[in-house]
Specification:
By secondary structure, this protein is α+β, with helices and mostly antiparallel strands. It is built from four helices and nine strands, in the order H-E-E-H-E-E-E-E-H-E-E-H-E. A six-stranded antiparallel beta sheet has the order 6-5-4-3-8-9. Strands 1-2-7 form a three-stranded antiparallel beta sheet.
Length: 193
Protein backbone atom coordinates (compact mmCIF):
# COMPACT_ATOMS: atom_id res chain seq x y z
CA UNK A 1 0.00 0.00 0.00
CA UNK A 2 2.83 2.34 0.95
CA UNK A 3 4.64 1.72 -2.37
CA UNK A 4 1.45 2.53 -4.31
CA UNK A 5 1.14 5.84 -2.43
CA UNK A 6 4.82 6.64 -3.14
CA UNK A 7 4.34 5.81 -6.82
CA UNK A 8 1.38 8.19 -7.04
CA UNK A 9 3.37 10.99 -5.36
CA UNK A 10 6.33 10.34 -7.67
CA UNK A 11 4.01 10.46 -10.72
CA UNK A 12 2.36 13.68 -9.50
CA UNK A 13 5.75 15.26 -8.83
CA UNK A 14 6.97 14.19 -12.28
CA UNK A 15 3.88 15.66 -13.98
CA UNK A 16 4.26 18.93 -12.07
CA UNK A 17 7.92 19.15 -13.05
CA UNK A 18 7.02 18.44 -16.68
CA UNK A 19 4.36 21.18 -16.67
CA UNK A 20 6.74 23.73 -15.15
CA UNK A 21 9.41 22.83 -17.70
CA UNK A 22 6.92 23.11 -20.55
CA UNK A 23 5.61 26.45 -19.27
CA UNK A 24 9.15 27.78 -19.08
CA UNK A 25 9.99 26.58 -22.59
CA UNK A 26 7.03 28.25 -24.28
CA UNK A 27 8.10 31.86 -23.63
CA UNK A 28 11.64 30.97 -24.68
CA UNK A 29 10.38 29.45 -27.93
CA UNK A 30 8.20 32.50 -28.52
CA UNK A 31 11.10 34.85 -27.75
CA UNK A 32 13.27 33.00 -30.27
CA UNK A 33 10.89 34.22 -32.98
CA UNK A 34 11.53 37.84 -31.94
CA UNK A 35 14.63 39.85 -32.60
CA UNK A 36 16.99 40.75 -35.40
CA UNK A 37 19.12 38.36 -37.39
CA UNK A 38 21.59 39.29 -40.13
CA UNK A 39 20.83 36.95 -43.03
CA UNK A 40 23.51 38.17 -45.46
CA UNK A 41 25.92 41.02 -46.05
CA UNK A 42 28.34 41.82 -48.85
CA UNK A 43 30.46 44.66 -50.17
CA UNK A 44 30.48 45.66 -53.82
CA UNK A 45 33.03 48.01 -55.36
CA UNK A 46 31.57 50.88 -57.37
CA UNK A 47 34.26 53.25 -58.71
CA UNK A 48 36.33 54.01 -55.61
CA UNK A 49 33.62 53.27 -53.02
CA UNK A 50 32.50 50.00 -51.46
CA UNK A 51 28.72 49.72 -51.19
CA UNK A 52 27.11 47.51 -48.56
CA UNK A 53 24.15 45.29 -49.39
CA UNK A 54 22.57 43.41 -46.50
CA UNK A 55 19.46 41.45 -45.57
CA UNK A 56 18.06 41.18 -42.03
CA UNK A 57 15.19 39.24 -40.48
CA UNK A 58 13.33 41.51 -38.04
CA UNK A 59 10.51 40.42 -35.74
CA UNK A 60 9.12 42.82 -33.13
CA UNK A 61 7.95 41.62 -29.73
CA UNK A 62 4.29 42.23 -28.78
CA UNK A 63 5.48 44.99 -26.39
CA UNK A 64 7.26 46.82 -29.21
CA UNK A 65 4.34 46.38 -31.62
CA UNK A 66 1.96 47.76 -29.00
CA UNK A 67 4.23 50.73 -28.25
CA UNK A 68 4.58 51.45 -31.98
CA UNK A 69 0.80 51.44 -32.50
CA UNK A 70 0.42 53.81 -29.54
CA UNK A 71 2.67 56.37 -31.19
CA UNK A 72 6.12 55.53 -29.82
CA UNK A 73 8.77 55.85 -32.54
CA UNK A 74 11.37 53.09 -32.66
CA UNK A 75 14.89 54.10 -33.69
CA UNK A 76 17.20 51.48 -35.14
CA UNK A 77 20.97 51.84 -35.47
CA UNK A 78 22.85 49.82 -38.05
CA UNK A 79 26.60 49.75 -37.45
CA UNK A 80 29.24 48.73 -39.97
CA UNK A 81 32.87 48.29 -38.89
CA UNK A 82 35.91 47.51 -40.99
CA UNK A 83 39.13 46.52 -39.21
CA UNK A 84 42.66 45.40 -39.98
CA UNK A 85 43.59 42.45 -37.75
CA UNK A 86 46.87 42.72 -35.83
CA UNK A 87 48.43 39.83 -33.92
CA UNK A 88 50.53 42.08 -31.67
CA UNK A 89 47.88 44.59 -30.59
CA UNK A 90 44.19 45.38 -30.84
CA UNK A 91 42.71 45.39 -34.32
CA UNK A 92 43.04 48.70 -36.17
CA UNK A 93 39.70 50.30 -36.97
CA UNK A 94 39.68 51.48 -40.59
CA UNK A 95 36.11 52.74 -40.65
CA UNK A 96 33.02 52.73 -38.46
CA UNK A 97 29.75 54.08 -39.87
CA UNK A 98 26.31 54.17 -38.28
CA UNK A 99 22.98 54.48 -40.05
CA UNK A 100 19.95 55.58 -38.01
CA UNK A 101 16.46 54.63 -39.16
CA UNK A 102 13.22 55.71 -37.49
CA UNK A 103 10.09 53.57 -37.55
CA UNK A 104 6.81 55.20 -36.50
CA UNK A 105 3.08 54.78 -36.90
CA UNK A 106 0.54 57.49 -37.76
CA UNK A 107 -2.84 56.42 -36.32
CA UNK A 108 -4.78 59.10 -38.22
CA UNK A 109 -3.51 57.93 -41.60
CA UNK A 110 -3.14 54.31 -40.45
CA UNK A 111 0.27 54.20 -42.05
CA UNK A 112 3.72 53.13 -40.91
CA UNK A 113 6.49 55.61 -41.62
CA UNK A 114 10.14 54.79 -42.18
CA UNK A 115 12.64 57.62 -42.26
CA UNK A 116 16.31 57.33 -43.09
CA UNK A 117 17.80 60.81 -42.87
CA UNK A 118 15.86 63.06 -45.24
CA UNK A 119 13.93 60.27 -46.94
CA UNK A 120 10.47 59.40 -45.56
CA UNK A 121 8.46 56.46 -46.97
CA UNK A 122 5.00 55.32 -45.88
CA UNK A 123 3.66 51.76 -45.75
CA UNK A 124 0.21 50.27 -45.21
CA UNK A 125 1.19 47.31 -43.04
CA UNK A 126 3.74 46.37 -40.40
CA UNK A 127 5.01 43.49 -42.54
CA UNK A 128 5.75 45.88 -45.44
CA UNK A 129 7.64 48.37 -43.29
CA UNK A 130 9.66 45.63 -41.56
CA UNK A 131 10.53 44.20 -44.98
CA UNK A 132 11.83 47.61 -46.08
CA UNK A 133 13.72 48.07 -42.79
CA UNK A 134 15.35 44.67 -43.20
CA UNK A 135 17.06 45.58 -46.50
CA UNK A 136 20.11 47.72 -47.04
CA UNK A 137 20.97 48.46 -50.64
CA UNK A 138 24.02 50.32 -51.92
CA UNK A 139 25.00 51.99 -48.65
CA UNK A 140 28.39 53.69 -49.25
CA UNK A 141 30.59 52.62 -46.35
CA UNK A 142 34.25 52.54 -47.41
CA UNK A 143 36.74 54.24 -49.72
CA UNK A 144 38.90 51.74 -51.61
CA UNK A 145 41.94 54.03 -51.51
CA UNK A 146 42.44 53.50 -47.75
CA UNK A 147 42.91 49.74 -48.21
CA UNK A 148 46.00 47.72 -49.02
CA UNK A 149 45.72 44.83 -51.50
CA UNK A 150 48.03 42.63 -49.42
CA UNK A 151 45.92 42.63 -46.24
CA UNK A 152 42.85 40.59 -45.36
CA UNK A 153 40.38 42.78 -43.45
CA UNK A 154 37.50 41.95 -41.12
CA UNK A 155 34.05 43.43 -41.69
CA UNK A 156 31.28 43.46 -39.11
CA UNK A 157 27.60 44.43 -39.34
CA UNK A 158 24.98 44.67 -36.58
CA UNK A 159 21.60 46.31 -35.95
CA UNK A 160 19.87 47.18 -32.67
CA UNK A 161 16.96 49.13 -31.27
CA UNK A 162 18.38 52.35 -29.82
CA UNK A 163 16.61 52.57 -26.43
CA UNK A 164 18.46 55.82 -25.63
CA UNK A 165 16.23 57.56 -28.19
CA UNK A 166 12.97 56.39 -26.61
CA UNK A 167 10.92 58.91 -24.57
CA UNK A 168 12.45 59.34 -21.10
CA UNK A 169 9.72 57.47 -19.13
CA UNK A 170 10.10 54.47 -21.45
CA UNK A 171 13.90 54.49 -21.18
CA UNK A 172 13.62 53.57 -17.50
CA UNK A 173 11.25 50.72 -18.38
CA UNK A 174 13.53 49.60 -21.22
CA UNK A 175 16.55 49.41 -18.93
CA UNK A 176 14.76 47.27 -16.35
CA UNK A 177 12.92 44.99 -18.79
CA UNK A 178 14.19 42.69 -21.51
CA UNK A 179 10.95 43.23 -23.48
CA UNK A 180 12.61 46.25 -25.11
CA UNK A 181 15.80 44.44 -26.10
CA UNK A 182 16.10 44.01 -29.83
CA UNK A 183 19.51 43.49 -31.38
CA UNK A 184 21.37 41.25 -33.74
CA UNK A 185 24.54 39.37 -33.09
CA UNK A 186 27.43 40.86 -35.10
CA UNK A 187 27.72 39.37 -38.59
CA UNK A 188 31.41 39.10 -39.42
CA UNK A 189 33.30 38.17 -42.56
CA UNK A 190 36.80 38.53 -44.01
CA UNK A 191 37.59 40.41 -47.18
CA UNK A 192 40.63 41.14 -49.33
CA UNK A 193 40.42 44.14 -51.71
Amino acid sequence: MRSLLNAKRFFALGMALFCFTLAGALPAAHAANEGIQVKSASLKLDDETYLLNAQFAIKLSPTLEDALKKGVALNFSTEFQFKRPRWYWLNEEIVKVVRNTRLSYNPLLRQYLLSDGAQLVSFDSLDEVLSALSQIKAWPVLDRRVLSKTITYQASLAMHLDVSRLPKPLQINAISSNKWELESAPFEWSMSP
